Amino acid sequence: MPKPGPSLPSRVDLVVVGAGTAGAALAGRAAAGGLTVLCLDRGALDGAGARWVNGVAEEAFVDAGVPLPSGDELRGTDAGFHMVAGWGPERMVMRGHGVLEVDMRRLVARLQDRGQEAGATFVGDVEVRSVEGTEVRTSAGVVRAQTVVDASGLAGLHLLDSPPTPPGDICAAAQAVFAVDDPAGAAAFLDEHEVAEGETLCFTGVAGGYSILNVSVHSDEVSLLTGSIPADGHPSGRALLERFVAEQSWIGTRRFGGHRAIPLGRPHDVIAAGNHALLGDAARQVFSAHGSGIGAGMVAAGILADALIDGTGPEAYAVTWMRRYGGLFAAYDSFRRFSQGLGLEELRRLFRAGVLDPETAAAGLGQRLPTPDVASALGTLRGLARVGAVAAPLTAAGARMAALMPLYAAYPRSAVGRRRWARAVGVIHGGPP
Asked: Per residue in 332-391, pLDDT tens?
């Protein structure tokens, strides 16, 4: 006999589709504020969201109202970050960047547990088949909800008919933690690259301008993170990871990890309409400079939950998030589009000239704008004179970044105003919507 499907409530205040980081954070905060919440996931709950180690800015936890990770969830704290052009020798070292290394499996489980303790209902292995107004049709029955939020990731539910992310704006990322079989071999690797145990060695531009291979050794484990744009003709992050492991005899068996496609590009122009809203990757709330949406999703979840609790609704959430964070994310996506077109020699030239400096790079890691002093600004200007033809597109990217910030700070409340605004943003940003 087939097992009976899960039983769903017939009516709730909020249905959240997707029980990963953003969805679970929203469900918990909304339930804690007194809303009846149903959070659904198409897979098992213990498989929802990212299943790897991810860098998350400490500031994002604070802004989202989520307690900082600790214990086994926290795998690294603000250690030195060595960014290398290609395989070297050019490098810069960032310290005090405020990025924590977090086990996403444990973070998602913690957020789900907090949500359940607050009164939210979480149900896995349920497919959402359609959403029409307040009616959510699923494989387990029909639920009516005052608000429906899509936090289901890149594929999404197409609640707001958002344009698809083109292949050239999709990062194929992979991360895995392996055993260290040969400690002496690991130590020799670290010595060769002048990196201490616990620090991160980031090889950039190894498969196109927008690509990385991060290596971090912690005692008997090594953590690897890779990412690239396969549509540009480069190997995927998964292929880069597997190739590196095959070349390093000191790396042993895989302990855990995963791979996924991450949407880049500026945030969707419309992330809420009526009683529907987009959250996390579904809204393209991804910090394109390094392809991470974990912290952004938690912060956006807090803003959306507060708007639902106080009755201002999804569109108030959209205005608040866009005005507060949209410009930052769109600006850094303009820089991502510039860096994606760089060749390795151009990247090395930027390092040598000091145009890409540790302070600027650390700001990007922490998902904030740099605040250079006069000396740093003058140094950048002098460096531009030494980088040749790449100076013009870099300067243009900087101008676009500066122009986007005030546009997003004035994100319109009306649908008519948003259409005019979107046209202006499209012209300045230059990328697909």
From this structure: 999 999 999 999 999 999 999 988 888 889 889 889 888 877 667 777 778 888 899 999
Same domain, 177 and 45: no
The one-letter code for the residue type at 95 is: R
Q: Residue 415, exposed/middle/buried by CB under 10 A (0-12, 13-18, 19+)?
A: exposed
**Cis upstream peptide for 183 (omega within 30°):** no
Q: How many domains does the chain contain in total? A: 3
Do 54 and 181 belong together in one domain? no
- Residue 214, H or E segment: strand 212-218
Q: In the 3-class helix/strand/coil scheme, how is 215-237 assigned residue by residue? A: EEEECCEEEEEEEECHHHCCCCH
Q: Both ends of the chain: CA-CA distance in Å?
A: 49
Q: How many residues does the chain have?
A: 433
Residue where a domain stops, chosen among 262, 293, 309: 262
Question: Would strands 37-40 and 11-17 be described as parallel, antiparallel, or unpaired?
Answer: parallel
pLDDT digits (tens, 9 = 90+) for 151-188: 999 989 999 999 999 999 999 999 999 999 999 999 99
Do 177 and 199 lie in one domain? The reply is yes
Q: Is residue 338 domain-shared with residue 361, that is, in the same domain? A: yes
Instruction: Please state the rounded mean pLDDT for residues 109-117.
Output: 98
Cα gap 337→210, rounded to integer Å:
9
Domain residue limits at 25: 11-72+102-165+265-324
Helix axes 21-32, 104-118, angle to 10 degrees: 20
Looking at the fold, whether 38 and 140 belong to one and the same domain comes out as yes
Tell me the Ramachandran region of residue 158: left when phi exceeds 0, alpha when psi lies from -120 to 50, beta otherwise.
left
Whether residues 126 and 41 fall in one domain: yes
CB contact at 8 A, 147 and 314: yes
Element of type H or E holding 314:
helix 314-321
The helix (run of H) or strand (run of E) holding residue 295 is helix 294-309
Is the CA virtual torsion 69, 70, 76, 77 positive or negative? Answer: positive
- Considering 275, 301, 324, which residue would you say is the last residue of a domain? 324
Residue 107 domain flag: yes
Same domain, 345 and 407: yes
pLDDT for residue 1 is more than 80: no
Is residue 305 domain-shared with residue 382, that is, in the same domain?
Answer: no
Sheet bearing 99-103, strands edge to edge: 53-57, 99-103, 74-77
How many angstroms separate the Cα of 319 from the Cα of each of 5, 147, 266, 311, 414?
Answer: 38, 17, 15, 14, 10
